[in-house]
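Researcher: Please predict.
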Amino acid sequence: MSEEPTLGELARRFEDRLTDVRDDIQQLGRRIDSKVSQEVYDLRHEALSARVATLETLREKDAEKLVATRRWLIGAVIVPLIGVLLPVIIMLTRGPG
């Protein structure tokens, strides 16, 4: 008996390989269909960049509000409190007269 495959066996092997190639092509097609197009990616990226810019602007405004609140606290509460307490402390340290 010879070691060479018969024509029927060659045909079966060829069909098996052809089936494998078709399956691979179908899998590639499914993977490509699940990918996002470059245009959609660019649009999403631009939207995200705009959102980040907006959030940064809001954060800067909040920081400015915090600074304004601190200045108000110093000007409206601490300075008058020192203005009232300082003469009392000076009067108590000098004594009567």
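Model: Residues 37-97 form one domain.
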